[in-house]
């Protein structure tokens, strides 16, 4: 009887952990070259879903949805973007003259690592934080970033 209880307890723990991981983690693919040289087209990234992590901070790489009214040609109905957080609510807009209005509460400014080759806040403005799906914690597959010499 004790062995049966132990087996049932182990099964319950495995099921609960599986559900937590499934709901808490996200695998996302980098599409395009906007995050070069950090991430390359096709890299698979592991992110912790929104709600299970702290608020995004400047420098974090996030997986986010496009704001309403913007689309990526051939991107499907609800494409996900991989971008770096350049600024958070209260910070001045990146690239501004330093005297610009701070970002509104509940927004972040996201940018690609490859300037000029990215659909990001430079195009659509500050991104509402609720469009952030997760914060990237590691690259799962793909090329490693090139090393500076």
Q: Structural class, judged by helices and strands?
A: alpha+beta
Order of helices and strands: HEEEEEHEE
Secondary structure: helix percent: 10-25%
The major sheet is characterized as:
7 strands, antiparallel
Runs in which pLDDT lies below 50 for 5 or more consecutive residues are: 145-149
Number of helices: 2
Judging from the principal axes of the Cα atoms, what is the shape? elongated
Radius of gyration computed on alpha carbons: 19 Å
Count of distinct strands: 7
Which sequence of strands runs across the widest sheet? 1-2-7-3-4-5-6
Give the overall pLDDT as a whole number. 84
What fraction of the residues are assigned to beta strands by DSSP? Answer: 25-35%
What is the first-to-last residue Cα distance?
64 Å
């Amino acid at each position: 009887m004790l062995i049966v209880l132990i087996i049932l307890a182990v099964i319950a723990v495995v099921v609960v952990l599986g559900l937590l991981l499934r709901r808490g983690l996200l695998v996302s693919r980098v599409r395009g070259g906007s995050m070069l040289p950090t991430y390359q087209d096709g890299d698979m990234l592991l992110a912790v879903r929104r709600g299970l992590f702290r608020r995004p901070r400047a420098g974090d790489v996030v997986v986010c949805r496009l704001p309403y009214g913007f689309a990526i040609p051939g991107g499907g109905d609800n494409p996900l973007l991989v971008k770096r957080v350049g600024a958070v609510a209260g910070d001045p807009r990146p690239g501004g003259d330093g005297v610009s209005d701070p970002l509104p509460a509940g927004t972040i400014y996201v940018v690609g690592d490859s300037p000029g080759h990215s659909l990001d806040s430079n195009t659509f403005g500050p991104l509402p934080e609720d469009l952030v799906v997760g914060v990237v914690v590691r690259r799962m597959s793909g090329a490693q970033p090139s090393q500076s010499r």
